[in-house]
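Instructor's aside before we start: the two examples that follow are unrelated to each other. I chose them only because their records fit on one page, so don't look for a connection. First example below.
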Amino acid sequence: MEYINLGQSGLKVSRLCLGTMNMGSKQWKPWIFDEAQSEPLIRHALESGINFIDLADFYSSGAGEEVVGRVLSRIANRDELVLTTKVGYPIGAGFNNQGHSRKHIMESIDASLKRLGTDYVDIYMLHYFDVNTPIEETWAAMNDIVRSGKARYVGVSTMYTWQLAKILWCCERNGYAKPINMQLQLNCAYREEEREMIPFCRDQGLGVSVFSPLARGLLSCDFNSVRNQTDFFTQEMYADGTSRNVAQSVSHVAQLRELPPAQIAQAWVLSHPGVDCMLVGADSVQQIDSAIAALDTPISADERYELERNYTPCDVINDYTAGKRIARESRAANGLFMDNLTTRNIA
């Protein structure tokens, strides 16, 4: 396992981060793992050297934090772990059960700590940018959480670059704790964050951790999996023809290399110069092993072209563009892969 300092902080994290959206209660989504199914995955991740674990209060409406918290209490030393959880999406009832108001943030951190069975989280993150709450109110609350010791650091996720700039400006102006990490979506089928967000994070010293390296399962190329058939977000974000063409290219490269498609897609993410850490949402220990193998999987120039040739610009994926994204067109194959595409049938 490789370890790095996250951003300009002194916090050392594994380059692979265990994502836990698939752990909690099947009442939330049909592809969720319960506690008994989740424990072997968490145990294998820890035994493989992963010390970075990502959660959110939204996952399974809080049950995800409870399940992961109980497992970790049995098998891990809390102080050896880097736990991050997120706040923002609806959980519970009432008008103030979501967003980034001071009321919701302060209530949510206490509820998350109770569910996780810990006195603190290492990174407390905004799940998105709440346009309905003044950023001064939001970040004053986040700063107070750091000062209270309930979180060691703060971070952000899934927003426009100008929104992150507004947060940093607020921190500079008020002397608040700055975010050390931006968690964003990046994969062969979605690369819009390369335009502004990743360069801005590099300039400002934020770490970059990537979720959905497999495009919510699409790039595993198992098109009949329960996740690909039932995850609404997969259909909403990656149902266009270009995304399918990207998946075909991943499958083609994987066949020529005799490797799993997921390993190729993850290797592309991990070799990206703007990426520090990659989240791994695994359904099996073999999928964790595939991500670990991707750390040492080189991508040749021909393979990179094939993986990237289908990509065309698209609307940013966030809460504000849902249901409004445009279809895309792909470029033609070239070089080695042009010849092989005419002779091989890609599943």
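Example two begins here.
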Amino acid sequence: MTNSDSKLSLKLLIDTNTNKVLFAEAEKDCVDFLFHILSLPVATVVKLLKEKGMNYGCLPNIYDSVDNLNDTYIQSKDILLKPKSSVGISSVPFLLVNDVPAQMEFYGCGSSCIRYYVTDDPIALCSSCRRSMSRKLTYVAPQGVKKSVEATGGFVKGVVTYMVMDDLVVKPMSTISSIALLTKFNVKDVGVLREEVVNFGMEEALKLLKASFESKTVLTSVFMSLIKVPKKC
């Protein structure tokens, strides 16, 4: 299953009096997706939203300015338009663009040059012998470093269900925390509450990404339009 074909699900708890999402129950894969947003370079976010016509603010103008500049005036477009994520991960659904490398790769001089220069561009020239820096190097992590997110699979552990608030605050789910939230939202009649499971794919994921920059009620703004709440008599 490719990232674009993946589907995630959330169980929403809805207050039918206000037609707002109080919070959602989420499994590991959903939380991994939300946390993965933090690792995305700004240019990647702009590119993803631009492709769906979801521009926001002036950042797309900066992106287009770089893209439209002739090579006479700019040294390297790819550094700005196709930045490399600091997190190497393949198990998180969505938001992984094919032309954006998931992790850094390093190269050394392809000749027997005694200088130990390193680059992340295989077509760069060695500063000493001026030959191609095409020899791929292997990165060795220091001892004691924890396993990477790629090795462990995502960011969070799948031992619990997580609670995702309407403003995307994430915390472990518990009965006590659920009751405390109902008190916080002044819900006196549980009869007004409704559970709704929503499945969402790439389209909704991008809407959620965009809403996270614009709103404090992200789950409500993205998912309530997909749900038909019966009108009260």
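Residues 97-102 have pLDDT under 50 and may be disordered.
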